[in-house]
Amino acid sequence: MNTAQPAATDTAARELNAPAIEIADLHKSFTVRGGKVRAVDGIDLTISSGEIVAFLGPNGAGKTTTLDMILGFTSPTSGRCLVYDGSPQEAVKHGRVSAVLQTGALLDDLSVRETVAMISSQHTNPLPVNEVLKRAGAMAFAGRKVSKCSGGEQQRLRFALALLPEPDLLILDEPTAGMDVNARRDFWAAMHAEAERGRTIVFATHYLEEAEQFADRIVVIADGKLLADGTTEEIRALGGLRTVSVVWSDDDGDPASVVDTLAGAESFRRDGQRVVFTGPDTDAIARHLLNHTQATDLLIVQVPLEEAFVDLTSQAAHSGGIK
Ligand SMILES: Nc1ncnc2c1ncn2[C@@H]1O[C@H](COP(=O)(O)OP(=O)(O)OP(=O)(O)O)[C@@H](O)[C@H]1O
């Protein structure tokens, strides 16, 4: 029938343009002894195809619970969670989304290759076993029994398994926890290659450096709420986290006068001979110090993301959120 044609085309077009993930007013509570835990408490988030997004947040922030809803492992208490404009379960079923989770059970007695071959047989149109082993960097230990693999090697195996259906969206929950620096670097190199193939990648991490180095966009989550969402630079700027440090001359009196007279300066602290100013306009602070004081040896310092992150989460704890 002709009528079926436009509908199919519409569906394909809609899916093509659909965001990878669309979350609106998402809530998830758990009933525990003594009350309720609001693990996810009103998150709105849209992730487009091709983005690499880090979920950053302290322990118990709600990152895993959010990822579990995106993967259809658990249902929202309320709100909407769509993956490619459909339910997460549909997306998983069609191989459009897969995950590298720390907890995914593996069979100890199988070799790495046997594990991939076994799971491969459950997919309709999987990538060849050797191809995924190669892409995940697992070829070198493909013959090894799972029980003899290190934690990092087991994560690579999980990565290989996740690649089998050639997913459009890869979800990774703290994928490199427990890996040493070299293993982590290799893992992210392999992941970079997948990103270059156009995959959307969403990962939760405690390693702020990883978020900074690998993600295009960082979503900061704490207490089940989204605190900040932006590029690494935007997240840093949110915390106002550039400082101007100078060797202060006592001839200029109290550094507080700079903060009092200059709109771009917010606060200062003494650090030995130096005075460190912070504020929304570090350029204006620097100009003022160079032109109107005897301060010398001026440094503008970008505060590391780690400190920006700590600052954001502690601000949230005190104010109930950051607008
Ligand atoms: N099944 C559950 N039953 C009861 N409470 C839960 C359950 N799952 C998660 N929680 C609680 O929900 C909150 C969010 O947990 P979640 O695991 O999503 O945080 P997270 O950001 O992933 O933390 P981490 O970085 O430590 O993995 C925590 O307070 C946690 O104890």
TrEMBL record:
It comes from the Bacteria. GO terms for biological process: response to antibiotic. Pfam families: ABC_tran. Keywords: Antibiotic resistance, ATP-binding, Nucleotide-binding, Transport. Transmembrane segments: none annotated. InterPro entries: AAA+_ATPase, ABC_transporter-like_ATP-bd, ABC_transporter-like_CS, ABC_transporter_ATP-binding, P-loop_NTPase. CDD domains: ABC_DR_subfamily_A. The keyword Signal does not apply. It is a peripheral membrane protein. Residues 21-248 form the ABC transporter domain. One of its GO terms (cellular component) is plasma membrane. It is found in: Cell membrane. GO terms for molecular function: ATP binding; ATP hydrolysis activity. PROSITE patterns: ABC_TRANSPORTER_1, ABC_TRANSPORTER_2. This is ABC transporter ATP-binding protein. The lineage of its organism: Bacteria, Bacillati, Actinomycetota, Actinomycetes, Micrococcales.
